[in-house]
Amino acid sequence: MKRYGYLYEKITSFDNLLSAFKKAYQGVGKKSYSLEYWVKLEPKLIELQRELINETYQPRDYRYFKVYIPKERTIAVADFRDRIVHHAIVNILEPIYEKVFIYNSYATRKNKGTHKAVKKAQDFLRENYWYFKTDVKKYFDSIDHKILYSVITRKIKDRKLLGLIKKIIQNGGKQGKGLPIGNLTSQFFANIYLDQLDHYIKDNLGVKNYLRYMDDFVVFSDDNQYLKDLWEKIEEFLDCSLDLRLKPSASFINSRTNGLSFLGTRMFPNTIRVKKENLDRSIHKIKTREKEYKQGEITEEKLQQSVNSIIAHLENYNTYNLRKDIFNGLW
Question: What are 23-41's pLDDT values in tens digits?
């Protein structure tokens, strides 16, 4: 496996930090802290660059809050300057890892995403009668820092960059485990972590009909027993190589006649429906934006953009009558 060095200079270059700032700014919009950074952009970026070059940079503490939809999760919000560093790292590492990620890994990658993952899953469902679906138990909380760092060193040999990555990894989690949910680097490193599973399944076991979206993955086959045997091998690999466990309640083998629930949809060989809880969430978002508009909290343009985004999401599935009902105010 080719290993890459001389990356730190690219990450800490002013052009890369400026690009990272623009992405971080775009992600949060005109908040007071991002505007404050923007007003003093050049000196602040130069200061950040100096800290990185001198290896004195230290990530700051996260701010935490809880969300309850679709399930209770603790979200970690990094300081704005740290988000710039996260983008700066991913800017340089993403093209390297894109060369090694398997094609049917769909989370947090350019030109991938949920819609393409769902469409590919339906293609596999048409071609195979059985499927094994599962996800990893408490995935982000269970990622082992030492194993993750070891996995990254197989591809990266730049000492300074590895030191920076170690600081970011160790800034989250407890007792050497866990990545904070809600950060770009967490998502990126989590994808790298399970890429080991992808290649074990594809390269070592020779599985053809497999796809993954972060820690949710599905294997398809016409042979029920083949999937049972595969289930055992996957559990053993995750346990021995990545110190991960499958979620028992989410791990099962089923037939396409009963449909497949995946990424907020319920799919059959010729139909894809939006699951009720996801539909309810979309309707709630529309009503919330309407309320914000009426109270003068957002502009009409912002309202229209938000509604169009939700409708565009629904258009990917068999929701024509549903979308008519939404526009007619029946929801």
Answer: 999 888 778 888 889 999 9
